## 1
Amino acid sequence: MKSIHSADFKIGLLGGGQLGRMMLQKAYDYNLFIAVLDPTREAPCHQLANEFIVGNFKDYDTVYNFGLSKDVITIEFEDVNSDALADLEAKGIKVFPQPKALKIIQDKGLQKEFFTKIGVPTSPYFIVKDKVEMAQKATQFPFFQKLRTSGYDGYGVQKINSKADISDAMEGPSMCELAVPMDKELSVIVARNESGEVKNFPVVELEFNPEANMVEYLFSPANISESIEKQAQELARKIIIELDMVGLLAVEFFLSTSGELLVNEIAPRPHNSGHQSIEGNYTSQFDQHIRSILNLPLGDTAATKPSVMVNLLGEKGFEGPAIYEGVNEAMAMKGVNIHLYGKATTKSFRKMGHVTIVAESLQEAKTIAKKVKETIKIKA
Amino acid sequence: MKSIHSADFKIGLLGGGQLGRMMLQKAYDYNLFIAVLDPTREAPCHQLANEFIVGNFKDYDTVYNFGLSKDVITIEFEDVNSDALADLEAKGIKVFPQPKALKIIQDKGLQKEFFTKIGVPTSPYFIVKDKVEMAQKATQFPFFQKLRTSGYDGYGVQKINSKADISDAMEGPSMCELAVPMDKELSVIVARNESGEVKNFPVVELEFNPEANMVEYLFSPANISESIEKQAQELARKIIIELDMVGLLAVEFFLSTSGELLVNEIAPRPHNSGHQSIEGNYTSQFDQHIRSILNLPLGDTAATKPSVMVNLLGEKGFEGPAIYEGVNEAMAMKGVNIHLYGKATTKSFRKMGHVTIVAESLQEAKTIAKKVKETIKIKA
């Protein structure tokens, strides 16, 4: 049998962004060989990958040909050609997450139907093929229109406040989700390996930038009751098991003002809501992803210290080669861990990096996080 | 001014071994550009370096030409051509550690004389140019013969038990050091940046493999009195300041059975006695090395948890392509962090990787470390 700790065993990674980059940084600890496919020559992974192939991961032939020489294929971005992955799987190549699970997750309509089917609580929704159908079906406002496919990081999501807004809605088949009065957003990352071992990380709490609709702060642990903590963990485990998925799955929740826990979205890969685990937990989400797809024992997910993660988003109104202001000042603060993703150019709200602050108490970490946020600015 | 977070700013690293590899893994967090020079095409750094140049770091022209295009030059191995580095420094290129400090450290005779000059306690010694002079000067036994230059990891060191042993001593100028009855070996890693900021890590305790004369276990924190802790930290700080050195310095100590703290050796780079800091401290030694040579604020060095580091040495009697036994079993244990260095071939006692065990108590970490040591075997 080939040793996974040698270049004889080839892992193929679709996507070469920051999630892939952090996965590669960890993968060197296990001496893994990882080839990366990404359309952008200067993608965050291009310097670290053992092999970096420029190509479109949405194209059937490109993905199929890339995958043929690999032992295991995985992703760091879910909007890839899952038909090619299904055919590679049929040829006996291991693909984790499996194409069947991926196809459900890639389509926000199928995702919602899946939650309903397995009895997982989620906010009320309706599915439409276009704006005409939206106008017919909409009875309650406000709601969020989410394009069924290709949305990410706040793109492909629009708030519809009234009947009049529908004419400005996005074109394309959509899932429309009623806006639930919300107390908090939460996330649980769970992993499952081929042997069926399942382990979840503790619940974390997310605070969004309202303008960019992107995570701005993450708090670990979440400030929630034991009962909600337990419910969220159990729902995450239930979803990965019902999906019969191998790999890492991020499960995002809404906690409504009435105390109801609703599943929002899932992502079958390392996720922004797990970045704090690099310094704040016994095992990082990147380590856990690697362990899950290689059928290694899953790592302990307990937090080692309270932590706060701050996303470094490109300053609004700046576009061009990135200039990092205030990084040195932030580095002087205790427990501050800077992660820059190596993207050459910035634009408004682009994810350019993140910072994790580890401290003896969450309050202390929050105080430092606020200072970090005020200190680091990414301009052009 | 060039931004250090871009490929415009080029760092040159002499040596492409595991210390460089772990430095590179961290350097991606700051988006640094690092070119590596190493004679071995398949060195542990070759896949991760932004640029990997195959060449002899002991050769004047090779080092000089490699260095000319760089903004900062550093090392992960001290036996490099320091004359070339001195000439690069004279041209205005930053070289950290500075060639002047490097020349003292490269020669175990000059090192000892330096300790004596600045009043740092060290074990009694005498310097000889050859075996004839050794026979003349040796009055007390046993002592350790250490070749003045080119020794590392137990090579270039020999125990001389009696007058009769001298005929079997190594050829070459040597520093001969009286064997002091020893209680423990300790280490402190200290860093200094160009602005003069100095920070040291807490003291750690080392346990050697007697046969290979290499570190087998490391314990953090060391089990020593507060007074010894303070003395060791102060001596480490004194040495880096007196050397006027910028960079990271590992200071190894003997604690004699009579309770005397003696400086053994120093190394101006990340060191085996700091590996636990990756998971066990707020800032890792690799992070601190990077911070020091780029004149960034030094990071907090406190331990986050007790930890034990186990070196993974090639099993005695095996030589050839490495086979890793027991890695999966070890990965199932809590707090176990595996680091494989990506060396294609193993041989007796070769450093092939290390494992850091982080736990709530040192005792718990020690228990797991023992199991890890029994579980992982690197054979061929």
## 2
Amino acid sequence: MDLLKELRGFLPDDQVTVNQTVLEQHSRDESYHAPHLPDVVVFPKSREDVSKVLQFANKHQIPVVPFGVGSSLEGHVIPYRGGITLDFQLMNRILEIRPRDMLVRVQPGVLRTQLNKELSKHGLFFSVDPGADATLGGMAATNASGTTAVRYGVMRDQVRDLEVVLADGRIIHTGGLSAKSSSGYNLTGLFVGSEGTLGVFTELTLRVYGIPEATMAARATFPSVKNAVDAAVAIISTGIPVARIELVDAISIKQVNRFSGTDYPEAPTLFLEFHGNEPGLKQDVESATELAMQEGCQGFQFETDSKARSQLWEARHNLAYAFIKASPGKKLMSTDVVVPLTELTGAIEHARQMLDEYGIEGAVLGHVGDGNYHAVLMTDPNNPDDVKRTEHVNASIVEYALSRGGTCTGEHGVGVGKMKYQRQEHGDALDLMAAIKKSFDPNGILNPGKLIPAI
Amino acid sequence: MDLLKELRGFLPDDQVTVNQTVLEQHSRDESYHAPHLPDVVVFPKSREDVSKVLQFANKHQIPVVPFGVGSSLEGHVIPYRGGITLDFQLMNRILEIRPRDMLVRVQPGVLRTQLNKELSKHGLFFSVDPGADATLGGMAATNASGTTAVRYGVMRDQVRDLEVVLADGRIIHTGGLSAKSSSGYNLTGLFVGSEGTLGVFTELTLRVYGIPEATMAARATFPSVKNAVDAAVAIISTGIPVARIELVDAISIKQVNRFSGTDYPEAPTLFLEFHGNEPGLKQDVESATELAMQEGCQGFQFETDSKARSQLWEARHNLAYAFIKASPGKKLMSTDVVVPLTELTGAIEHARQMLDEYGIEGAVLGHVGDGNYHAVLMTDPNNPDDVKRTEHVNASIVEYALSRGGTCTGEHGVGVGKMKYQRQEHGDALDLMAAIKKSFDPNGILNPGKLIPAI
């Protein structure tokens, strides 16, 4: 079948392309996973465009892969079975801001920074911050989170409603404008994190927050990673409502300084942020400082002005890119496990041991307030031995987490990279997931080969 | 088939009964919905008991209805098709408290107050507080919330893992101990709020919180319901993190005073609570007071000692019972809509108009910080005209909410009472819900006739 011709039969010519460069741009994400070309890329402009494409694809059993900016880390957007990639860059409008309802309605191609720029005019912000300037559609598809989840929750906590085009082209809404609901099954939560395998998002209604009265950022350095993690666990367990609490190990600080031009002390560090009213925040900072000191904190450096604060988080966000830049020819493999807080110190020590044992120059960092950390492993995709060795370390870290009630992925998602752990993590529950997939997408056209392993 | 004999074939005699009084206790909930007897009541002691009963019931296509304490408000536990009621009062153990992980593992028959009593020994509390001393299993089944949801979220936000027995007797876990996960579809969120129609809970792992350093409760009286609601909306929109903010109208205050022996001014009132560190809380209280004064607040009365605070919330919790006691022979019909905050004042004014127009002596109260309110309508179940009139008002309130992006039920759930609004609220998404039901429970034995209307 001539896909280009068929699709141009019901879509304007400039919304459908088989240009080689464009196909290549849609053949990969930011991870080490092998690229694969789609047969065609479509740029929908409306829910109706998406619905028409899906009706067509469903009839002819052609795979369809939704695509934001390709910042996924487990191969989610790589079209391993070819077919149609739906790129949402033309559906990037902020449709409605309702400041008093603390809600915003957006198209899936809206970027995180684009949304926050607009929201700031109303004294509001969108809380989820995965580092990458991802699209809101992509963030909902992977249930992204990041540095602020410890205070404001993950993507799933922010989505009130999704407009979804189903495999057969039907358009549904999963929720509404209510702050809560006990009506019907929770389809919103089911679609968030479904990685394009159950339906394609064409609109999102999201919860937003008022910009806090006061914000304070800080860096706390420790003699060891263990001390830093123990301090983080103490701060969280005490109930201090930190807005961010990030572990950055010494190797990562080196990369930060090199890439971002900072001169932070090259020691295990917690990056912290506090939000609140002035007096409450002051008290929170005091309590946190005290707990950090009890863990041997060697310096608690406050970033009071907004420029230094921005630089701090900018540096943290750019860490993955810093590693990528520092390792030419290599690609990023990142673990993303979560463990209960009481298991966190042991888990991070185990990860460090594995890295040392296998001679991998990687970093350990992450969202320790949630028990979520990343071992950043650079690997050479053209060197099978290197990939195998790195994958072995990756697997060992995942096994450690799963054996302690943890999860194989806290925020990156399953994609193709974490599929092999799904049975071990979910047991027979995986069969229920497969049954849902089968019932929502009987022809298996929606991002096939992702999330749910062939059973 | 002799159900008693068959069930006693694989369960101890004292765990299975057809005693008439026991059957009657399991024929109703706290609502106006007509009672119906189960054929037999089973008291499981373990997941294995539940699994055996479900395997048996599935084989013989016998309905199974899980039962906590019967405090549901939409007929959820009424076995309209007879069959087996599973009463969880013997599965009422707190299995594990992990204070540093802020987690607790419980059996489904554990009561809310029982859990909080135990947690308080560790400086912890469980946040969800629906008023009734319900079981945790029942609260998860209906996605209950209540007064503290505005700060801590609803039941769905607290559940980390469910052990669920499926219709065919298989036992699965929906989650784990992680604070967040992007692994697989979100089955935990799907089962929470499924009202016993997708599986039966045998264990719950729940998030708990540290008891806040400082707590302050207050009553603020206003010249009108509109002023009270506008003040609440202003407080929420400003981002003051109130822990509770409840509207209690003048009629309800009268009932409170009569039933609970208080002497609160009989005017539209907000009941508030603040949690935080001392200085932060003080600032929050000041900001809230200022906003209330701008809406004509006639008195901001603080309940500083813990006894007066307990009395305040006790009085609020007993409101439903106060109305029931004040109307002998009548039963409770409660609306439970949620609307976006900007629609709340209009919605409550509309509800008040409907009550006046139809001469129904009812109250309007609720969790206004979430946009969730209840019109409490007492009706005589033996007077069809009375029921019809009350149902008409109920329907009109629901229609108003749905037409403004709201939901027909914020926390009570669908049961049988809100089934008729499911198509209107969910549109084609209801077909997806029905498909999930069909795939999880192909023989339709799990709480049949609830939540999902026959399609």
